[in-house]
Structure formats: C-alpha cells, structure tokens
Amino acid sequence: MLSLPARAQEPPGWTFAVTPYLWLPNVNGTLRYSPPPSGTGAPEVNTGPNNYLENLNGVLMLSGEARSGRWSILSDFIYLNFESQKSSVKAVDFGTSLVSTGLNASTSSSLKGVEWTLASGYTVVQTPGATLDLIGGLRYLGIEARTDWQLTGTVTGPGGAQTFPASGNASRRSDLWDGIIGMRGRVRFGESQWFMPYYLDVGTGSSTLTWQGFLGVAYAFKWNDAVFGYRRLYYDQSDSKLLQDFRFSGPSFGATFRF
C-alpha cells in the first residue's frame, strides 16, 4: 500500500523503494448507467458482495517511492479486471421518476479499471519508534463497467408509457481526477523488527468524495519489508454519474525493496 516511509536515521542523498504487492478487494456499491437511446429507462445496479478469488480476472499492482531527507515522492499503480460480479437491478430511472424493482433473475457486472496515485510528502515525525508523513497529490481512476441483466418481467414506468426490457445490457466509462491530502507512517513494536504501517487520504474533484485507508502489520528485514494488511478505497459521485457509494475492500500483502 504505497511505499512506506523509510526508517529513521536515513543516510543523506536520495533513497528509493519499490513495492510489488497483491490486493484482493471485494466490490460493493451502485452502478448508475446512462439512459439508452431508446429512452426506455436507465438501470441502477447493486453489485456485491463478491468472492474476489472467483471474479478477479487480471491484476497488476506496483508502488514506488523516492526520498531525500524529510521529503518524498510516491506513486501507486493498480490495474484490476473483474468478471461476472454478482449484481441486481435495484431500480430503473425513467427520467421523471425512479421505479424500484425486485424482478431479478440473473444479473452480473464486469469492471475493468486503472488507479494511479502521485503525491509528495514531508516527514513531521521521525523517531526510532514512529514516523509520520503529511502528503498531498492527485489520484486518477479510469473505470469501465458493463452489466448484463435478466429479469423475470419488464419494468413499467409511470403511466405505462415506458417499459424497461426483461433482458439486456448496459455499459459506461468514467474518468475521475481527484486532489488528495492525507498522512502515512509506521509505529514500531518495542525494540523488535515488527511494526504497524498505516495510511489515510481523503479527496475530491471529479468525485464528490474519495478516501483510501490501510492498516497492517510488517516485519523489517535488512533489505526489505514484508507487509500484510487491510485496504479500502471509496468513491462516491453525485447526480447521475457512474459510481455511487462504491467500495473496494480487502486484504493486501507485498514486499518493499529499498536501494
């Protein structure tokens, strides 16, 4: 989860860290699609909870850090591809009204996206037992969603003038740029090589609200750290945009190599 702040008493000059890792999130939230050209209504789709091991189709995750003294530059890149996410059409937006539905028979969603964070940080606490960096930067999320639905019947709009078909599909893409601020650091357990890494940011921009958090446990070897923890990434967009109260949550583990 982003390269962690380096240990206290670093030598002068630039140091670098690379962290390959694996994050296995469940996906929960609502996908809101645009109305189709036919004007038959736009579905609102609940997705999750899902078994990530069954639905994760592709993944690439890598973070890095460059540090000089108390200043740092950090970057985090994620590619995720989920197939056949368990979903349900919870409502249909006919423009003038939102009609709830419980007619789901078989509905699934696919999600494919890239997340990239770029930020700078400054260390405000640096002791043998703890570090704390304040950070600020940007986060990008480009995501493509597709839902295939199968209902037990059509959904009728107000007055019966519009209908939503019992089967079909919808897709939508969203590109989000958000400014973020936050903090990160570690707390050492006594005099041992075990420590607790933590991270938290919050932001807005293309999103009404986005935040990300990580809390874990790690062991410091001579040249690298082994890290395990839990990570959550949250997005909420306003109005009729794609992501509504959307959460990626799950365990993460990796190794940080320093040079």
Produce the secondary structure layout:
Layout: E1 14-23, E2 26-32, E3 42-47, H1 52-55, E4 56-68, E5 71-93, E6 98-100, E7 104-126, E8 130-151, E9 155-156, E10 163-164, E11 167-188, E12 194-205, E13 209-220, E14 224-236, E15 243-258
Antiparallel strand pairs: 1-4, 1-15, 2-3, 2-15, 3-5, 4-5, 5-6, 5-7, 7-8, 8-11, 9-10, 11-12, 12-13, 13-14, 14-15
Describe this structure in words.
- This protein has one helix at 52-55, and strands spanning 14-23, 26-32, 42-47, 56-68, 71-93, 98-100, 104-126, 130-151, 155-156, 163-164, 167-188, 194-205, 209-220, 224-236, 243-258.
- By secondary structure, it is an all-beta fold.
- It has a single domain, classed as OMPT-like (Lipocalin), CATH 2.40.128.90.
- Strands 1, 2, 3, 4, 5, 6, 7, 8, 11, 12, 13, 14 and 15 form a 13-stranded antiparallel beta sheet that branches. A two-stranded antiparallel ribbon has the order 9-10.
- A hairpin with a 6-residue loop joins strand 14 (224-236) and strand 15.
- It is elongated, with a radius of gyration of 22 Å.
Descriptive keywords:
259 residues, Lipocalin, 13-stranded antiparallel sheet, mainly beta
Element-level helix/strand string? EEEHEEEEEEEEEEEE
Residues in helices, as a percent range: under 10%
Q: Residue-averaged pLDDT, rounded?
A: 87
| Strand coverage percent | over 45%
Largest sheet: 13 strands, antiparallel
Shape: elongated
Rg estimate, integer Å: 22 Å
Oligomeric grouping of the chains: single chain
Number of strands: 15
- CATH T-level topology: Lipocalin
Q: Which architecture per CATH?
A: Beta Barrel
Class of secondary structure makeup: mainly beta
Q: Estimate nothing, just give the exact number of structural domains.
A: 1
Contiguous uncertain segments of 5+ residues:
none
- Helix count, DSSP H or I runs of 4 or more residues: 1
